[in-house]
Amino acid sequence: MADVLDINDSVDLDVEDDGDQGVLRLKDKVLRRKGRGFGTGERREHEKKGYESVDPGDYSDESGPQKSVEGWILFITSVHEEASEEDLSEKFSEFGPIKNLAINLDRRTGFLKGYALVEYGEFEEANNAREALDGGEILGQTIGVDWCFVKGPKKNRRGRMKRH
């Protein structure tokens, strides 16, 4: 890796006449760069790139549930180990069309790990399902239903949480 020194074109290179002051002025005008991509005569301007973000919609100013990229995801806990995808979709489809249902199985036993993710397209559908099914039962076992992604409290410029 090569070091590159850029010297501003307007700098007078006769530093011998000024002595130490000329050398100090020259050092102030030098821009030192490290790394690849700095060819001879080539100047690159670094630009700040924007990143994609999720549109928070109407719920951007409050703490609470946060929308994922495609919808609102519920986290279901304490799911019976022998529950199937059909059992969950039957229970949760009462509140609206399910965009995605994810069930993770234990590789060793082949049974459900005990949790599932259900995604709805609309906030109202997901919220109604969360309120109605939290504490409900699937295959005789009480389940817990809550938001998968939650925004924390707002922070001020110093990184401390605001108190209301």
UniProtKB/TrEMBL annotation:
PROSITE patterns: RRM
First-listed, main subcellular location of the protein, grouped into a coarse class: nucleus
Any single GO CC term annotated in Swiss-Prot or TrEMBL for this entry: nuclear speck
Record bears the keyword rRNA processing: no
Location(s) in or outside the cell: Nucleus; Nucleus speckle; Cytoplasm
Keywords associated with the record: Cytoplasm, mRNA processing, mRNA splicing, mRNA transport, Nucleus, RNA-binding, Translation regulation, Transport
A GO MF term: mRNA binding
Role, per record: Core component of the splicing-dependent multiprotein exon junction complex (EJC) deposited at splice junctions on mRNAs.
Name assigned to this protein: RNA-binding protein 8A
Species, as recorded: Photinus pyralis
